[in-house]
Design brief:
The structure holds two protein chains of two kinds. Chain A is an alpha+beta fold. Chain A has ten helices and eleven strands. Classes of the chains: A alpha+beta, B alpha+beta.
């Protein structure tokens, strides 16, 4: 498969990256950031929204930083290991992503900024042309969404990253860099509800690193991933839960692969906490509430009603795994 | 040795122990004299059969080839002869061919499911700088197809496109980028037609059937082929003691081979076409090229490159092969076309999506009184091998069992989807699964062990199936016994806790198709092999057999090495080019080892005779008293009286130079005379039985297969390592179909998962531990007793897993694949029907033997004695299906019973009660409709 031609830029500092990006924007052209390329480049091969410029973050030293608390966006997933002192939950989640080969190229930044996926969208150009395109890659036609037909305002492509719910449940923050400067925000504020925009990155902005809070290592977590095969597959549903052992108020539940963004389920936890915990019953009730709060659509391998049903089981298992009874 | 040709000794170094190979440094065998090892290796008696004085056990009796065994390589686990090329990356696959001055071809594919092409304007394409040539359907309107009876394909669509991705035009350019750019410049006017996706709708009359067969067309439907077969005594199914009725829906699956299709075509300076393609069946491509290009076959050289997996998916002549040839002829330059993975799915030829209904009954003696099968299969846009598939879905489901009656209706319909075709286990896989699960269900009703039920109803060796297939060797009973023992079945079946299950399934498959597709087997052989031996002692074998990774080249080298008692390194197989290979039908229907190795043995025997005669001249001892062993020929009572292989060879060459021999294989006359009798007919059949163990995640519906005990009767394992590889590989492929693989067509009819991420082939993590168990029943007609091992081992894994899932959770599934959502739904349904809160409280199925268990075990024990006598040919009496029901095998069955039928068309009164596919028999052909049409 031949990729469409593009100009590849290799900045070696944050400053240079920002200036290249600003220049491209000033010229009225578009670009994509690339880290490991395992998400962007397959899409390019399928000619899904390719851009004339691609800026690589590979040579930026700050992007490659790695400590248990600060993880640069260029960190390959294969380095998220116990040996490097990573949080056990992150180690667990990273080990469930794609395959061991892909994890050598794929990065933390790429996984967090993963493009949303949909079987009407992740197809070749010929294929998409034959359905007259879709809202997410409409090639200027204003095409309707193929999942929820007769509308072209909402894209419901599914976010299928594995790391995001885990970092969210650990209370991580991220550092974004743009020509306007740096901003640090909680990861859960990064994603916004639309398969098209997916997150709050502004034009010319990129995710530099993710930072765990100082109490992160006091938290115990579990990540439950539903997939057909234990290799390669994106999650069809994913639930990450953390808590400070014994402290029900500290419970954090995050889900992924169920909607266009990963999300935290504060309300559901709060409502159980308000009632007070009573072992198994509360677990089942909480699991049921989480299930009710997600609305998967039919655009991944497994049907949405099934994916929704098993959220209950995944939540229950994650809670039991972390010793929440 | 003096005055003659001096053999160079060659360099041999100390054997490396680190496994590394250094070019020119490895130790290779000296050809017989002048080498560094003057001492002959002793004969390996462990690989010489008992019947000729060796130590190799022969529980299934002796074989006609025993006396030519030399203990050299047959029966020993050997690495495949082409494995070095593959593991070092030096094997040349389709896309590895680089010819000077090549151009890159790309194919324009239909964006519509079904449409007429009103016009194609190529002006803008031709004007693009860098474009060399353009071709459309009008450049080559002759039709072709893999079966002579159903030639319905064109190089590119001539009038209409029949599925999305169907070929419309092609272009070759200086670079791939230009070729891709050119594809956007075709101006095409379409007339969109109403597509058909649902195979059930294929049975209905439409305005514009996808193909038109003239007077043979069935009304105005999209039915490509209908089959009706009825055998046996239908009265036996009345008042059954047990009955199973299952309606199955099975999704289409693809072969998922690693190498995408690729082709390089070039017209050489003499105007001959050289075509390089990874083909399983180069000969059919050869024929089709000749038809389409209107060039005689002798002006075409088809070069089979290494094949990066085929599994049936590279056995049709393909339109892109024609396209490359057409573009190359137009441009005068080589053209290379390589598919994207998506194009691989669009050309498809995978397993047919099917609706299968199986009704079966057993009588109060635990005999299987009837199989009633109805199979509606979805052929997609073209016929491909479908004519045969339509039969296989029925006729290959009867054996290994002895049946009271068999009733089959099948229909293959065209739909506007990529064409289905032949895939490993061709046509036999889906119905086999349905039948084996039905048997399990009947065993449960009868309260007997399903293995005992099977053991008490097997056909013996040297018998005939209900549809008239001739069974020779038969290792079915041993296979079942071995997996029962290996898996500790008796302590596990119906005894495991919820979520853990064990299940059994059997298989039966052809070892070579009895009739060559293109000619009368009595007038031309199935396979021919040439052998040439020159002064250096090396043996060159020319064969057209296509090695697709299954090891056919190794098999042929092995049998020649065995007959001539030479190290396998001295055998060189040349099989790539049609210019140098004798005609071989190619790698399909698991025919290659059986037919091609038989042909190779004949050719090798001729060489052997010439060499022995020369030794006779030199030694004065008759060849009957001479022994071949390790490059030496000696008097059997005194090994010191002998000559080296090379000395004898040179003596034999004195008058004529290189020794040349040709050997051929022809199948014996066999089978019935009814319509369709040839479908499923084979010179031998393989048998297999698997036990699978599964873990079911009861809450999520995820099924994981953990262990498989896989017994396969391959007659004689010429190369046990290769046979085990085939068994394990078959398990993997079958597991894909039963657990996760499916071609998903969405609501718009588009194939939605034409890539290897969403088309879910099991990964290493999904692979169970497979324990391959080789059963050797020593086939009387197979080469050294061998039968097939490439396809049959796939069949039993599907039902074994489905039955194991039932054992684990008590839910019977009849929709494949068993993706977690399907299993989850089944579990939830069961949970709700039992009014349980939690699926973890589901009861596990249990078995308490009923009154029938003991008689079945007794009968199985009696039959075991019978089978052993027949296998060893101590008992050579006739045995036909029906003896179990009390019939005399020496009198035609129809003369003994009024009700014993053999029909290939339904009676008028049967028309009312036909199944889904059977409804095709309610329609009349255009010819029958006459003026009403």
């Amino acid at each position: 498969m031949l990729m469409p031609p593009f100009t590849l830029h290799h900045p070696s500092s944050i400053q240079e990256a920002i200036s290249i990006a600003s220049n491209i924007i000033a010229d009225g052209e578009t670009f994509d950031w690339v880290a490991g390329g395992t998400d962007v480049l397959p899409n390019y091969k399928w000619r899904i929204n390719p851009k004339p410029h691609v800026i690589s973050l590979a040579n930026i030293p700050e992007a490659k930083q790695l400590s248990p608390y600060d993880i640069g966006c260029m960190t390959p997933l294969s380095q998220l290991t116990e040996v490097n002192g990573m949080h056990p939950l992150i180690v667990e989640a990273a080990g469930k992503i794609a395959s061991s080969l892909i994890r050598k190229s794929a990065t933390v930044g790429g996984n967090l900024c993963l493009d949303t996926r949909c079987f009407w969208y992740n197809q070749s150009e010929d294929w998409r042309r034959s359905i007259d395109w879709c809202h997410k890659a409409d090639c200027g036609t204003g095409a309707d969404c193929r999942v929820i037909p007769n509308q072209n305002t909402l894209c419901v492509a599914t976010y299928q990253g594995d790391l995001a719910p885990n970092f969210m449940a650990l209370g991580a923050t991220i550092t974004l860099i743009s020509p306007d400067g740096e901003r640090v925000i909680p990861l859960h504020d990064f994603y916004q509800l639309d398969g098209m925009k997916k997150n709050i990155l502004k034009q010319g902005e990129f995710l530099l690193k993710v930072t765990l809070p100082s109490n992160a290592f006091e938290l115990t977590g579990s990540y439950q991933k539903l997939r057909v095969r234990e290799s390669w597959d994106f999650p069809e549903a994913g639930i990450a839960i953390t808590w400070k052992k014994g402290d029900y108020k500290s419970l954090k539940i995050a889900s992924t692969a169920l909607e266009s963004i990963p999300k935290l389920h504060h309300e559901q936890v709060d409502s159980i906490n308000a009632e007070g915990w009573s072992k198994n019953e509360s677990i089942m009730e909480l699991a049921g509430l989480v299930r009710k709060s997600v609305k998967p659509v039919n655009n991944t391998s497994l049907p949405p009603n099934y994916r929704r049903s098993v959220v209950r089981v995944l939540t229950k298992r994650a809670l039991k795994n972390i010793g929440c009874e | 040795m003096s005055g003659g040709y001096r053999q160079q000794p060659g360099k041999s170094s100390a054997k490396r122990r680190d496994g590394k190979r250094v070019a020119g440094q490895q130790k290779f065998p000296p050809p017989g004299s002048g080498g560094s090892n003057p001492v002959m290796e002793p004969r390996d008696l462990n690989f010489i059969p008992e019947s000729v004085g060796g130590k190799e056990p022969q529980p299934a009796g002796s074989h006609i080839h025993d006396r030519i065994r030399t203990g050299t390589v047959v029966g020993k686990p050997l690495q495949l002869v082409d494995s070095n090329a593959k593991v070092t990356g030096q094997a040349w696959y389709g896309d590895d061919i680089r010819l000077t001055n090549e151009t890159i071809g790309k194919i324009l594919r239909s964006p519509h499911h079904y449409a007429k092409i009103i016009s194609i304007d190529t002006t803008r394409v031709e004007a693009l700088p860098g474009v060399i040539s353009v071709a459309t359907g009008q450049d080559a309107p002759n039709r072709f197809g893999v079966l002579p009876v159903t030639k319905d394909e064109h190089a590119m669509s001539v009038e209409k496109v029949r599925h999305m991705g169907d070929l419309v035009a092609c272009v070759c350019a200086e670079t791939e980028a230009i070729a891709i750019e050119a594809l956007a410049l075709f101006d095409i006017e379409w007339e969109i037609l109403e597509p058909v996706f649902d195979r059930k709708k294929g049975l209905e009359d439409v305005d514009e059937p996808i193909h038109w067969r003239g007077k043979y067309h069935l009304s105005r439907t999209n039915v490509q082929k209908r089959v009706f077969q009825e055998f046996g005594d239908r009265s036996l199914i009345e008042n059954p003691h047990a009955a199973s009725h299952g309606k199955w829906s099975m999704e289409g699956v693809h072969h998922g081979f690693t190498e995408p299709h690729a082709v390089v075509a070039h017209w050489d300076p003499n105007g001959r076409l050289q075509l390089y393609t990874p083909q399983q069946v180069p000969h059919y491509t050869h024929r089709a090229l000749s038809t389409v290009l209107e060039v005689p076959m002798h002006q075409i050289n088809v070069v089979r490159t290494f094949v990066g997996g085929g599994f049936g998916g590279k056995s049709d002549p393909f339109p892109h092969e024609m396209c490359a040839a057409i573009l190359s002829r137009k441009s005068g330059r080589p053209v290379r076309i390589t598919f994207d993975r998506e194009e691989v799915y669009w050309i498809n030829r995978g397993r047919h999506p099917s609706d299968i209904e199986v009704k079966m009954t057993a009588d109060d003696a635990g005999r299987i009184s009837g199989f009633d099968i109805d199979a509606l299969i979805d052929g997609g846009g073209f016929a491909s091998f479908g004519h045969v598939t339509s039969y296989y879905n029925g006729v290959l489901a009867t054996a290994p069992y002895e049946l009271g009656s068999f009733h089959y209706t099948g229909a293959r319909v065209w739909t506007n989807k990529p064409a289905s075709g032949a895939m490993r286990g061709h046509g036999a896989v889906n119905t086999r699964c349905a039948v084996e699960v039905g048997l399990d269900e009947m065993a449960e009703q009868m309260q007997v062990d399903p293995i005992d039920l099977r053991l008490a109803n097997l056909l013996p060796p040297h018998s005939r199936t209900i549809t008239g297939f001739r069974i020779t060797s038969n290792g079915m009973r041993e296979a079942l016994e071995k997996v029962r023992e290996g898996s500790d079945w008796d302590n596990k079946f119906r005894k495991l806790p919820l979520g853990k299950g064990i299940g059994v399934g059997c298989g039966f498959f052809i070892s070579g198709s009895g009739l060559p597709i293109h000619w009368d087997p009595n007038r031309f052989p199935h396979a021919t092999v040439h052998i040439q031996v020159d002064m250096d002692g090396g043996v060159t074998v020319h064969t057209g057999a296509a090695d697709i990774g299954q090891g056919s080249t190794t098999a042929v080298a092995q049998v020649v090495a065995e007959v001539l008692a030479l190290p396998i390194e001295m055998i060189h197989v040349r099989s790539h080019e049609s210019d140098t290979s004798p005609v071989d039908l190619g790698s399909y229907s698991s025919r290659v080892t059986f037919m091609n190795a038989n042909a190779a043995i004949r050719a090798a025997l001729e060489i052997r005779e010439q060499i022995l005669n020369a030794a006779w001249d030199m030694l004065g001892y008759h060849p009957n008293t001479l022994v071949l062993n390790d490059r030496r020929i000696y008097y059997k009572h005194d090994p010191s009286i002998g000559v080296s292989y090379l000395q004898a060879l040179h003596k034999a060459q004195e008058d004529k130079g290189a020794l040349i021999a040709s050997g051929a294989y022809r199948s014996p006359p066999m089978g019935g005379v009814h319509k369709g009798a040839a479908a499923g007919l084979a010179p031998a059949y393989s048998f297999s039985s698997y036990v699978a163990e599964v873990d079911v995640d009861v809450e999520l519906g995820l099924v994981k297969c953990t262990n498989v005990w896989a017994a396969h009767d391959c007659g004689k394992a010429l190369n046990p390592l290769a046979v085990k590889g085939q068994i394990i590989g078959s398990c993997h492929m079958g597991l894909g179909q039963v657990l996760s693989e499916k071609m998903v067509y969405g609501r718009t009819g588009h194939l939605q998962n034409a890539n290897l991420l969403e088309y879910k082939i099991p990964s290493i993590h999904e692979m169970p531990h497979v324990e391959p168990i080789i059963i050797e029943s020593c086939d009387p007609e197979g080469p050294f007793g061998a039968k097939e091992a490439g396809e049959g081992p796939l069949l039993p894994i599907l039902p074994a897993v489905v039955n194991a899932v039932y054992d684990a959770i008590g839910v019977r599934f009849r929709d494949l694949p068993l993706t977690p959502d399907v299993v989850f739904k089944g579990i939830e349904k069961k949970r709700k029907s039992l009014k349980l809160e939690d699926s973890l409280d589901l009861p596990s199925p249990r078995l308490e033997y009923g009154p029938m268990q003991e008689p079945l075990v007794l009968r199985a024990a009696e039959h075991k004695v019978r089978d052993k006598a027949r296998q060893r040919t101590e008992d050579t009496s006739h045995y036909v299906n029906g003896v179990l029901f009390g019939f005399d095998p020496n009198i035609p069955l129809e003369d003994q019973v009024d009700g014993w039928k053999m029909a290939t068309e339904p009676d008028p009164e049967q028309l009312a009660e036909l199944g889904l596919a059977g409804k095709a028999w309610l329609k009349k052909t255009q010819r029958e409709m006459g003026d009403d049409a």
